[in-house]
Design a protein that fits this description.
Layout: H1 6-11, H2 14-46, E1 54-61, E2 69-77, E3 88-92, E4 110-119, E5 125-137, E6 150-160, E7 163-170, E8 182-189, H3 193-204, H4 220-243
Antiparallel strand pairs: 1-2, 1-6, 3-4, 4-5, 5-8, 6-7
Helix pairs in contact: 2-3, 2-4
């Protein structure tokens, strides 16, 4: 790979220009995906001032060359006043239809965990849930060898008004019987922290709010659509920031270096160096690296 000037790029054969433009868009999309994942993970972890209400454990078998094989799942309601807080609980795994998961020995598959609520001194976080996944028993085999390499995904869910939040953590694969799966802390944000989080996000990326930052448990189709919309919005935000245009409008602010003042109507430049078509929604380039700080 090598960088070329606009003149050198235009002198290349059309086929090579198209190939370079495609590779560049793939590179930019990868950078955008990292930024999107970081932004939505931060939002769902620290923007939930109403607190977490439920934890779902999903047990799957690790496969190095293919997708993980689902084994079972179980949900538990988070109760700050429960007498079971801090004590070990044995939970029975169920399949996606709600039927008990039975292991190869004919016994029900179980997950042992301990959950405890800890209030915190006054600050940005009001409390923390400590979730310990201690062990699993009687898991069915998902490998041809007759064994499994299980791991646990933890989904904490909560809701504040119409906004739903979902925070995910995943353990490493359990290779030895009796080894601890996961010890995770789920922070509860103090009132007002969510507003501060989103205000900070606005400074970093003016389009980092809204339906684009969907929950981690969303389906693949919805996730792709949300990322696509977010990436396009990021492209326009980067373009406006680079040209000194106000967010969401056409009026110019302090012009960026090398940009002459005009009527504020500036078409974005695509990653291949060409001006955009009239349909601005077709923008697929520009990364988060071009946004204002």
């Amino acid at each position: 790979a090598n960088l070329t000037t606009p003149e050198q790029h235009q002198a290349l054969p059309p086929a090579e220009r198209r190939e370079r433009a495609g590779k560049w868009r793939e590179f930019i999309s990868s950078i955008d995906k990292v930024g999107w994942e970081a932004a939505r993970a931060y939002r769902h972890r620290f923007n939930n001032a109403a607190g977490w209400t439920e934890v779902k454990f999903v047990v799957a078998d690790f496969d190095a060359l293919s997708n993980a094989d689902f084994i079972g799942q179980v949900s538990i309601h988070l109760d700050k006043t429960s007498s079971l807080a801090g004590h070990q609980q044995v939970l029975h795994l169920v399949d996606r239809s709600g039927n008990p998961v039975i292991g190869k020995n004919g016994l029900p598959a179980t997950l042992t965990c301990a959950i405890q609520f800890h209030p915190l001194p006054e600050g940005r976080l009001s409390a923390v849930w400590r979730v310990h996944v201690l062990s699993a028993a009687n898991l069915p085999s998902r490998d041809l060898s007759g064994s499994s390499d299980p791991w646990v995904s933890l989904y904490a869910t909560g809701k504040e008004g119409s906004q739903a939040f979902c925070f995910q953590q995943r353990s490493s694969a359990l290779m030895k019987p009796g080894e601890q799966f996961l010890a995770e802390a789920l922070e509860e944000a103090a009132p007002g922290l969510g507003v501060a989080v989103m205000q900070s996000a606005e400074k970093i990326l003016p389009c980092a709010v809204g339906s684009g930052l969907i929950a981690a448990a969303t389906g693949v189709k919805e996730e792709k659509a949300a990322f696509s919309a977010w990436s396009i919005a990021a492209a326009h935000a980067a373009d406006r920031a680079a040209r000194g245009l106000a967010r969401g409008g056409r009026s110019p602010v302090a012009p960026a270096a090398g940009v002459t003042e005009g009527d504020g109507t500036v078409a974005p430049i695509f990653s291949d160096g060409l001006r955009s078509l009239p349909d601005r929604s077709a923008c697929t380039g520009w990364s988060l690296l071009g946004t204002c700080q």
